[in-house]
């Protein structure tokens, strides 16, 4: 039996007994090479890595096989201890992340509609005032001022629509409250569907877990259902822009995946789904759709493969940015290292020959991982004790150094832009190192996309955080790298030519960035303080609010950024009797009333209103709604604070309670 046959036999036998090695560096999905090469490239980059291009599937069978391959290889075990990867940091990172979640109280769902994070471009609960002199009223706190985002609370200044489905399972309806008479607000009806809400003129859109509907609310006391559509995919996010409803729907292909049916009875051919030509940790199909809010009719759509974990979706006035993750698993890293000059020099001639032969074997990655371990075990067995121990140390050190040299290639994020001008279509793609936190990790400004990412810790190499600037073709033109060594990003905010990033592990470094020159972004200043900020909000010129935690208690911090090179903490408040704030989970829970110089911050038991004028934080109201506060809004000089069962109305000129409304 020749060497090639032996290799195949060993690999297949290993598969039968279920013995596998080679954990993915980020615990994600296995990959299959398309170019057949696994040696280090001439340019010194990691073997098998190439710039992503986009294509479509040749057939339905190719689509099904693509996702079946990723499903079957999604859970490789950790490397054998015989020749272990240097510094098995995956377990350490998992433990650290668990501690982080426990401390912050954050959801681990990476794809929620209301991700926490920074706010961008001034879309913060803006005041609306009708030209006929009607009172001002607040809108949802959004990322982009021109794009409304779904939330459980919407108002047009006269009627209020409130769906508390996130906080109690017993509700299946949306309450309607009349606030046209400030002296006598009252509940006037309900809609028999609950979900996230968008208000398009006289049409209220309700986005539920499994269906979406539109109601004519021209007469709020008698809402009339205009349309209802099944949602066969998970709703990632939605936007209301220029009279159109945009949805991003996520479908995870199953045993009979074709065609894709994310919205109503409209089908999408699997051969129309866009995918990268390079390997990707793709486990889902993301569909961007434009819908007529008055009729619910699907007007245009396009679909792209994506990753449900460690990815983000961002929507601007020009496009929908979808992302997917590409990670290098343990087998590819080891094989690439052993193909490098230093790695190859460790092996004897027989081991080098067997490693090289792996490239030509047409078997799964699992089988190759098993065979590679067998090769390394045999290589060690040919040495005596001292030589074996020396070789083990050299292998560990070499692999760690190799991983460090290629750290920004091991986990990357592919970005796809869907043009929303005309029919929805993919018009650009790019790639950056690391992974984003959430939608606020990305921001479009002056034909450039800025994105903040965390480069994961692996093989004894500390995590770091970067900010990249991409041009209109999604080519990287500038970067700031190495922020917060051994930390990860907790919040981001981009505002015009400025940027703010918070990283955290033991302390909270607050970074100010100068982004005025896209080709030469730079760190302006840095401030360290206890705790961390999970949400950043510009209150006024040169004043930024951070909301997060310290010692597992909610914390609000005022930053003076008038001198970006020297940011200053002006004041902070810790809610010592509370255990968390919903603002850490979703930016839509936050409200600023600039006219009165206050902001609303819900907590686990009470709801708080703080005055921030003059650079000091002063609690001006603490509202008891019989449980966690959920949302707040203002109409005129009255603040409405909503809980699960009723709303409390405050006079903003005196901060006294006026009335309570049963919901």
Describe the structure in your own words.
With about 675 residues, the chain is of the alpha+beta class. Among the domains are: about 330-410; about 435-530, Lipocalin (Beta Barrel), CATH 2.40.128. Helix content is about 15%, strand content about 40%. It contains nine helices and 42 strands. The strands form twelve sheets. Strands 4-5-6-7 form a four-stranded antiparallel sheet, with no helix packed on it. Strands 8-9-10-11 form a four-stranded antiparallel sheet, with no helix packed on it. A four-stranded antiparallel sheet has the order 12-13-17-18, with no helix packed on it. A hairpin with a 4-residue loop joins strand 35 (about 590-595) and strand 36. Helix 6 runs antiparallel to helix 7. The termini are far apart.
What's the topology here?
Layout: H1 3-17, E1 54-56, H2 60-72, H3 89-104, E2 127-128, E3 137-138, E4 153-155, E5 159-162, E6 174-178, E7 186-191, E8 196-200, E9 203-207, E10 211-216, E11 224-230, E12 234-241, E13 244-251, E14 260-263, E15 266-268, E16 274-276, E17 284-291, E18 298-306, E19 314-315, E20 319-327, H4 330-339, H5 341-346, H6 349-357, H7 365-381, H8 385-405, H9 407-410, E21 411-419, E22 425-433, E23 442-445, E24 448-455, E25 464-470, E26 476-483, E27 488-495, E28 498-504, E29 508-514, E30 522-529, E31 532-540, E32 543-550, E33 553-560, E34 568-574, E35 591-593, E36 598-602, E37 607-611, E38 618-623, E39 631-635, E40 638-642, E41 646-651, E42 656-662
Antiparallel strand pairs: 1-16, 2-3, 4-5, 5-6, 6-7, 8-9, 9-10, 10-11, 12-13, 13-17, 14-15, 17-18, 19-20, 20-21, 21-22, 23-24, 24-25, 25-26, 27-28, 28-29, 29-30, 31-32, 32-33, 33-34, 35-36, 36-37, 37-38, 39-40, 40-41, 41-42
Helix pairs in contact: 1-7, 6-7
């Amino acid at each position: 039996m020749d060497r090639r046959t032996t290799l195949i036999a060993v690999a297949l036998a290993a598969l039968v007994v279920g013995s596998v090695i080679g954990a993915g560096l980020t615990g994600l999905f296995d990959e299959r090479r398309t170019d057949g090469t696994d040696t280090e490239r001439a340019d010194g980059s990691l073997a098998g890595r190439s710039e992503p291009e986009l294509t479509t599937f040749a057939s339905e069978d190719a689509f099904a096989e693509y996702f079946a391959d990723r499903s079957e290889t999604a859970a490789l075990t950790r490397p054998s201890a015989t020749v272990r990867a240097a510094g098995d940091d995956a377990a350490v990172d998992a433990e650290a992340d668990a501690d982080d979640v426990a401390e912050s109280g954050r959801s681990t769902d990476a794809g929620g509609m209301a991700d926490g994070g920074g706010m961008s471009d001034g879309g913060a609960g803006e005041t609306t005032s009708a030209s006929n002199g009607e009172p001002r009223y607040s809108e949802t706190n959004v990322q982009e001022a021109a794009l409304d985002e779904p939330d459980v609370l919407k108002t047009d200044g006269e009627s209020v629509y409130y769906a508390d489905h996130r906080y109690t399972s017993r509700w299946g309806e949306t309450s309607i409250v009349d606030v046209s008479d400030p002296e006598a607000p009252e509940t006037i009806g309900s809609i028999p569907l609950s979900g996230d809400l968008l208000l398009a003129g006289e049409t209220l859109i309700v986005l539920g877990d499994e269906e979406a509907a539109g109601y004519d609310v021209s007469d709020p006391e008698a809402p009339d259902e205009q349309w209802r559509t099944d949602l066969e995919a998970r709703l990632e996010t939605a936007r209301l822009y220029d009279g159109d409803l945009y949805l991003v729907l996520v479908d995870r292909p199953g045993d009979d995946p074709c065609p894709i049916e994310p919205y109503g009875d409209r089908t999408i051919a699997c051969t129309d789904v866009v995918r990268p030509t390079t390997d990707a940790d793709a486990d889902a199909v993301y569909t961007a759709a434009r819908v007529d809010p008055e009729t619910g009719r699907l007007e245009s759509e396009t679909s792209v493969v994506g990753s449900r974990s460690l990815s983000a979706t961002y929507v601007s006035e020009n496009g929908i940015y979808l992302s997917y993750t590409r990670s290098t698993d343990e087998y590819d890293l080891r094989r690439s290292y052993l193909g490098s000059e230093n790695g190859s020099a460790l092996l004897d001639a027989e081991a080098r020959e067997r490693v090289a032969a792996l490239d030509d074997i047409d078997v799964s990655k699992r089988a190759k991982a098993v065979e590679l371990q067998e090769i390394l075990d045999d290589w060690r067995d040919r040495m005596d004790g001292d030589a074996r121990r020396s070789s083990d140390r050299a292998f560990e050190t070499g692999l760690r150094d190799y991983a460090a040299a290629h750290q920004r290639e091991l986990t990357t994020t592919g970005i796809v832009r869907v043009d929303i001008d005309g029919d929805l279509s993919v018009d650009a793609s790019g790639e950056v190192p690391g992974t984003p936190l959430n939608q606020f990790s990305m921001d479009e400004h002056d034909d450039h996309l800025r994105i903040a990412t965390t480069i994961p810790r692996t093989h004894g190499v500390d995590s770091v955080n970067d900010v990249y600037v991409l041009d209109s073709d999604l080519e990287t033109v500038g970067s700031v790298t190495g922020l917060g060594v051994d930390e990860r990003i907790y919040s981001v905010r981009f505002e015009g030519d400025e940027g703010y990033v918070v990283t955290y592990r033991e302390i909270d470094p607050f970074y100010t960035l100068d982004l005025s020159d896209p080709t030469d972004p730079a760190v302006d200043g840095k401030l360290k303080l206890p705790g961390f900020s999970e949400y950043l909000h510009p209150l006024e010129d040169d004043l930024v609010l951070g909301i997060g935690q310290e010692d597992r208690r909610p914390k609000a911090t005022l930053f003076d950024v008038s001198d970006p090179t020297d940011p200053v903490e002006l004041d902070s408040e810790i809610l010592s009797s509370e255990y968390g704030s919903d603002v850490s989970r979703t930016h839509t829970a936050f409200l600023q009333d600039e006219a009165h110089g206050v902001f609303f911050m819900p907590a686990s038991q009470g709801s708080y209103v703080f005055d921030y004028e003059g650079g000091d934080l002063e609690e001006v109201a603490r509202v008891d709604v019989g449980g966690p506060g959920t949302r707040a809004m203002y109409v005129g000089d009255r603040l409405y604070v909503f809980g699960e069962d009723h709303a409390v109305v405050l006079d903003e000129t005196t901060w006294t309670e006026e009335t309570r409304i049963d919901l």
